[in-house]
Amino acid sequence: MAITVGTGFLIQPSPSSLSFHGWRNSCKPTLGGVAYRFLPTRSSGPRRLSCQTGVQAQQRPTWLPGLDPPPYLDGSLAGDFGFDPLGLGEDPRSLKWYVQAELVHARFAMAGVAGILVTDLLRVTGISNLPVWYEAGAVKFEFASTETLLIVQLILMGFVETKRYMDFTDPGSQAKEGSFFGLEAALEGLEPGYPGGPLLNPLGLAKDIKNAHDWKLKEIKNGRLAMVAMLGIFVQASVTHASPIENLVDHLSNPWHNTIIRTLGGSSPS
């Protein structure tokens, strides 16, 4: 398509970049991100210039370069890279629930990885006589029996999870006065999944939750990494019957011999 402008110029769409052919000056974008360039045209009459345009669409990053994400994953969610091979998020309500489920699992994984590594480091270095993480559940405590601890955990976790679900079904309902034993001001519910307040956001990093996309992205990225790390720790404990710090120490003591290849091949580390 070509559009004649006056008698001296011809505007013609083109996917090319900005440059003058036969001229030394450059042409900058002028309308809606559309790039123009002027080219001399062949004509028997007076010399004319053609202005060619090129429009480049900015694609958002996806988990597989060049992949077209599904329409319901439009990039508005934190950490949305178009990954949903099973189509679990096609239903909008299910998508909202999966977002909350991933967020909670990510936070538990981050806490779990930190707890395993810190306690394991204290145990391996001899600073504290702590059990290895996969045997910690069998430890008997003097202040309470295992049955008592289990019942208390079920009550507390059940209460918190119930309140979280109520806030998911009716956003903001758990921030009303008298809905959380008078702790509503300390929580200051920002939106489902982000309770906030001085109790859970003491540094005030994301008080404006609507403009906290960067913080949400950092959290979910670290959470996903922690979930993968937890899976690795589970497999590692099942295969080597050792803790992650112990495995690291074994590897560093003989890097060429104590490797994952030898471990999977059935050769015990020396």
Commentary on this structure:
This protein has a 4-stranded mixed β-sheet with strand order 1-2-4-3, with no helix packed on it. Helices cover 40% and strands 8% of the residues. It starts with a strand and ends in a 6-residue tail after the last helix. Helix 1 crosses helix 5. It is α+β, with helices and mostly antiparallel strands. A hairpin with a 3-residue loop joins strand 1 and strand 2. It is globular, with a radius of gyration of 30 Å. It contains 7 helices and 4 strands, in the order E-E-E-E-H-H-H-H-H-H-H.
Order of helices and strands: EEEEHHHHHHH
Overall mean pLDDT: 77
Uncertain spans = 1-39, 49-57
> Distance between termini?
74 Å
What portion of the residues fall into strands of 2 or more residues? 5-15%
Describe the largest sheet: 4 strands, mixed
Question: What percent of the residues sit in helical stretches (DSSP H or I)?
Answer: 40-55%
The radius of gyration is: 30 Å
Brief synopsis:
With 270 residues, the chain is of the alpha+beta class.
